[in-house]
Amino acid sequence: MGSNFAITPGKALVVTERNLSEGLATGLSRPPAVNQTGLYVLGDFVHVMRGIATGANEFFFMTDEQAQKTGIPGEYFIRAVGRTRDVPTDEITQMTIESLRALGRPTLLLTLAGDPHEAFPETIRNFLREGEAMGLPQRPLISQRKPWYRMETRAAPPFLFAYLGRRHSRFIRNTAKIIPLTGFLCVYPKSSDPDYLKRLWGILSHPDTIANLAIVGKSYGDGSIKVEPRSLERLPIPDHVITQFGLPSQMRLFEQQESYGTGSLPDHSPF
Q1: How buried is residue 63: exposed, middle or buried, by Cβ count under 10 Å (0-12/13-18/19+)?
Q2: 250 or 71, which is more confident?
Q3: First CA to last CA distance, the chain
Q4: What pLDDT, on the 0 to 100 scale, is given for residue 129?
Q5: What is the model's pTM?
Q6: Are 240 and 145 in contact (CB under 8 A)?
Q7: Which of 44, 50, 129, 212 has the smallest set of CB atoms within 10 Å of its CB?
Q8: 123-158, pLDDT tens digit by residue?
Q9: Buried/exposed 120-148: b ≥16 CB within 10 Å, e otherwise
C-alpha cells in the first residue's frame, strides 16, 4: 500500500567506476588512488605505533579521585589520555590535563612492571586481588600478558594522531608529554632536532596533508576514518607541502645521526 509520502531526491549514494586491481590495492572503502605521484610519504619522516591497550580501562585508567581511593602510591601512575573527544584542539597542554581533571575525567594510568605480587606495596596487592575477582586475567588481551597486570609502555610521542574521531581525524602536538591509549596513534619523528620538528608540524597540520588521509584510511559511517599505524606511514605528502616546509633537507641531519649511531626515538617534546 502506498504511503503517499513525498520522496525528495538526495545524494546518499555515490557510485564510482574503478579498475578492480586498483580497488583491491587501494582498498574498496577508499577513494581511487589517482595522481598520487609525490616523492614522499609520512613514513619517510616518522615511525607510528598505536597507543597503549590496557584491556580494561575501567580498572587500570582512573580519575584522581579513584586513584586516591585505592591508596596506591603516585609513582605507580603516569598521566595519560584515552578519548579523542577529551582533546578537542590540536595540542595537548598541561592546561588540557588540568581541565580534564577538573571535569572528573580519567588521566591516570596504573603502570605496573612484571614484578611478582609480593614485591608491591599492600595497597597494590589488594587492588590486584580485586582485578582477579573481576576475572580480568581471563580477558582475551590481558590473558596474553605475563603477568596479567603488566602494562604496555610507550615513550611520550611529540605528536599524536586522533584516528577514531568522527569527521575530525587530525594530528596533535603533545606538549604535555602524556601517554596516549588506543584512541590515538603515537607519531615518533626520526629526528629530535627542534627545526626538524617545527617543519614536520607544519607538514602534519597542512590541510592538503590531512585531505590525503582518505587515501590510506578506512571510511566508516558519518564520515569517520580509521587509519592503522602502517597505513598512516604510507600517507602521501604533497610535493608542494614538502617544498613549502623544506623538510627533506633536514633528513640529511637524521641520516648523519644514524650513521654515527645517535639516531633514536625521542621521549620528549621540544615545543
Answers
A1: middle
A2: 71
A3: 66
A4: 97
A5: 0.80
A6: no
A7: 129
A8: 999 999 999 999 999 999 999 999 999 999 999 999
A9: beeebeebbeebeeeebeebeebeeeeeb
